[in-house]
Design a protein that fits this description.
The structure holds two protein chains of two kinds. Chain A is built from 14 helices and 13 strands. Chain A is α/β, with parallel strands linked by helices. Chain A folds into two domains: about 220 residues, Amidase signature (AS) domain (Amidase signature (AS) enzymes, Alpha-Beta Complex), CATH 3.90.1300; about 150 residues, Amidase signature (AS) domain (Amidase signature (AS) enzymes, Alpha-Beta Complex), CATH 3.90.1300. In chain A, helix 2 runs antiparallel to helix 3 and helix 9 packs across helix 13. Classes of the chains: A alpha/beta, B mainly alpha. At the A-B interface, helix 9, helix 11 and helix 12 of A face helix 1 and helix 2 of B.
């Protein structure tokens, strides 16, 4: 077994103990990228000289000498991000030291490359990018999920054991579910974000995509700048919002996720209770409008009339549509956010966690990303966003944990949502879930 | 124009008013995306939010005042 196939924590431990040569590990990583990336298209840039320089200068941190990837959403000192697009309307992107870069460097990690993403982060599928679609390692004809498509495809494909993604409307959790990984969307404000091109964001966070929860805790600790304690989940009271999060899912998804949650409940004690969250149907439109408002200052005719023809047709149309949405709707969306934030905070007075499927169906095809649900055929984006955006609208943490294989042997994810700053509880719960599923 | 939906009329007028150029393909995308957005937007428009207290200067990293 190559050191490259070890968990992130074991790579770090073996390097620290002198049992694994970090230079050889980096060489193996770059060779693996060269070998597998033509199929996966998960990595859009490598820079061996800068990676080796990071390794030579790596301080004695928790990830010293460990190769990782970073999503194409932050600048590096030697490369401007592209956000998966020919250009980002109204924004000049330049190389620089971003927060996630600094956090990784200070932990001693080695950035081996930049990972692909859905163009402008605008979809949960990952099937469109300046660099072409990334592919799901479980089935190369299927979506890896988005917008953190490259980080997920790279970790699931064995190019690295951990990658940094970004989650603005679920963009870590959907690809984690589609690719069978653990993906954490931290509490807003906890993880390094400096240097992101949407400086005023209140929805986007950086977070880890890893093969399991223990690795996700390690990488999240690096992004938080503090060690996340290994909290014990005992006597959990788990809230389930049944309709539509559980009920409107493809055959097998509900059963698989219910079995996982029941196994968790049995393992740690506690109970699963049905809970109500008011105004569920308002959450998705409100989240979309709030997120869109963060970029709206650039949506002026001089910018919109000069959009690059290399930008995808859907993004060109959506950007122009956004400029025409009535301001009153955005103002109402912020009122809904205020109410939902209070409702969610009140809900967590009586429960420890919320849980439901991270995605309502397994990964759809790259060419036609549609899913079939009890409510009808839907775009994967619409179904996924319904499951995920509440964490971004309210700022609370959420995690997608692989539970078992669904239709066609493809992975599924169960999503666990926690109270503000409940990141440690989520990670420990995810570890319990994973261990329970592995034991069957 | 005959056969135009209300949104199509709004779209054509708004693009012209604001001086935003859009080709036929982009207009088709805008129509298609609006069809997805419309039910949620109508709900947002029609829901009575008068009693909802706004959250001034929210800090998303902190719990909301209650």
């Amino acid at each position: 077994m190559s050191g490259l196939d070890l968990p992130l924590r074991d790579q770090a431990a073996q390097i620290a103990a002198g049992e694994l040569d970090a230079g050889e590990l980096l060489d193996a990583c770059l060779a693996r990228i060269e070998e597998r990336n033509p199929d996966l298209n998960a990595v859009v840039a490598t820079f061996p000289d800068q990676s080796r320089e990071m390794l030579e200068q790596a301080p004695d941190g928790p990830l010293r000498g460990v190769p990782v990837l970073i999503k194409d959403e932050w600048p590096l000192p030697w490369r401007a991000e592209t956000v998966g697009a020919a250009s980002v309307p109204g924004v000049t992107l330049e190389p620089g030291e971003s927060g996630p870069y600094r956090a990784l460097r200070e932990a001693g990690a080695v950035i081996a490359g930049v990972a692909n993403m859905h163009e402008l982060g605008s979809s949960s599928t990952g099937n469109e990018s300046l660099y072409g679609a990334a592919h799901n390692p479980w089935d190369l004809q299927r979506c890896p999920g988005g917008s953190s498509s490259g980080p997920a495809a790279a970790v699931a494909g064995g190019l690295v054991s951990g990658a940094v993604g970004a989650d603005g409307l679920g963009s870590i959790r959907y690809p984690a579910a589609y690719c069978g990984l653990t993906g954490l969307k931290p509490t807003f404000g906890r993880s390094a974000m400096e240097g992101h091109h949407i400086a005023n964001t209140e929805t986007i966070v950086s977070g880890p995509l890893c093969r399991d929860a223990a690795d996700a805790r390690l990488l999240a600790s690096v992004l938080f700048g503090e060690e996340i304690p290994a909290a014990e989940p005992t006597g959990l009271k788990i809230g389930a919002v049944r309709d539509p999060y559980w009920s409107d899912t493809a055959p097998g998804v509900r059963e698989a996720c219910e079995a996982a949650i029941e196994a968790l409940r049995a393992e740690v004690g506690g109970e699963v209770v049905e809970v109500e969250l008011p105004d569920l149907d308002l959450i998705l439109p409100a989240a979309l409008l709030v997120a869109q408002a963060e970029e709206a200052a650039h949506l002026v005719p001089s910018v919109l009339n000069g959009l690059s023809p290399e930008l995808g047709l859907i993004n060109r149309g959506v950007l122009k549509l956004r400029a025409l949405l009535p301001l009153s709707m955005t103002a109402r969306a912020f009122k809904v956010r205020a109410k939902v934030r209070r409702d969610v905070a009140a809900l967590f007075d009586g429960i420890d966690l919320l849980a439901w499927p991270a995605v309502p169906a397994v990964a759809p095809s790259l060419t036609e990303p549609l899913i079939e649900l009890p409510s009808g055929v839907s775009s994967a984006d619409a179904g996924n966003a319904r499951q995920g955006v509440i964490a971004n609208l309210t700022g609370v943490p959420a995690i997608s944990v692989p539970v078992l294989h669904g239709a066609n042997g493809l992975p599924l994810g169960v999503q666990v949502v926690g109270p503000r700053h409940g990141d440690a509880r989520l990670l420990r719960t995810a570890r319990w879930l994973t261990e329970r599923v592995e034991r069957g | 124009m005959e056969g135009e939906s209300a949104f199509q009329s709004y779209l054509n007028g708004a693009l012209e008013t604001f001086g935003i150029e859009a080709d036929e393909d982009e207009r088709a995308v805008m129509m298609g995306v609006w069809a997805l957005y419309e039910p949620g937007m109508e709900l947002l428009r029609d829901t009575d939010l008068d009693a909802v207290e706004p959250e001034p200067h929210p800090d998303l990293s902190k719990a909301p005042p209650r």
